[in-house]
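[Q] Does anyone have a clean C-alpha cell version of this?
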Amino acid sequence: MKEAGLTLGAISMGSSFIMSCGTGSPATSVVADAVVVANTDFEISLAQWSLHKAFFAKELDPANFPRIAKEQFGINCIELVNQFYRDVVNDQEYWLAFKNQCDELDVQVGLIMCDGLGHLGDADEMARAQTVQNHHTWVDIAKYLGAHSIRVNAAGAGSSEEVSAHAIAGLTELTAYGASKEINIIVENHGGYSSNGKWLANVIQSVDSPYCGTLPDFGNFCIERAENGRDCLEAYDRYMGIEELMPFAKGVSAKANEFDAEGNDTQSDFLKIMTIVKKAGFKGHVGIEYEGETLSEPEGIVATKKLLEKTFLAL
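[A] Here you go.
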C-alpha cells in the first residue's frame, strides 16, 4: 500500500540495524571456493549500477538487491540507485520489507546514488530550492535504511565560476538538512565541471561542512563528450583528480570496464589509484561499479571483485 507521503521517522528503525557499512575490518570474500581474508583497511561494497541492464530490463527485482549481493557475490554492503525505486519512494511497507531483508541477511546499505532530481547548481533560485527539496525524501530513506550518505550531482548551466557558486549554494542548503539527519551529502565526479578534480574540491571546501564530501570515481573524468555520448573530447587526469578529491572522500567508487589477460582494468591502474586512496588515510568501503561490455554484468562484478582483492593484498 502506498502512502501520499513518506514519513519514515514514524517507523521504528530497531536497535539492531547498523548505521553504516562499517570500516576498518578485514575484507573477506569467496573466490574459487576458497575464503580469502585480506588484512587491509578496505572492504568491498557493490554499486547497484553494476547490474543496471538487468534491472532496467526487469530481469532482476530491485527489492531483492540485498539478497543478490549477498548470495550471488558474497558482498554484504550495497549502494542503491534511486532510479530503480522511483515508483516506491513513498511506499512505507516496501522500505520496511527492504530493511527487514537487509537485517535478515546482515547486509548494510552504505549509500544511495541519487539522479534525476534536478540540478543543485541551477542558476534559478526557485528551481534549485525545489531540487534540494526533491533530495529530502532520499535523505530520509537513507536514514531509515542505516546508510551513511546520499550521492548527488553538482550540475548546472553557465560558466565554471557561475555553476560553482550555484552548486555551493545548493549543496550548502541540502547539507544542512543532511546534517540534521546525520546523513552525508557526497558529490561524485560525474561529468561536466564536476569531472575537474580541482573544481569539485573547491566546491566541497567552500561548503565547509563535515557532512559534505566526495565520492571519487576511478573513471568519471570526462569533462566534455562528443555528440554520440561515447567519445571524450576533454578529459581530466584521473590520478590527479582522485588525489584532489580524496581529502573529502566518504566513499570510493571502483569503476571498471574491460580487463586484460592478467585481470587488470584496461583504463585505470587500480594499484596506483588505491595507493593514492591509502595515502590519503581513507578507511572503508570501495564500491564495485562495473560498466563494461565484453563480460556479462555478473562476470564483470566478479572480475572487478577479484581485481580489488588482488590490489588490497598488494598494498
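[Q] Thanks! Anything notable?
[A] The longest helix spans residues 125-145.
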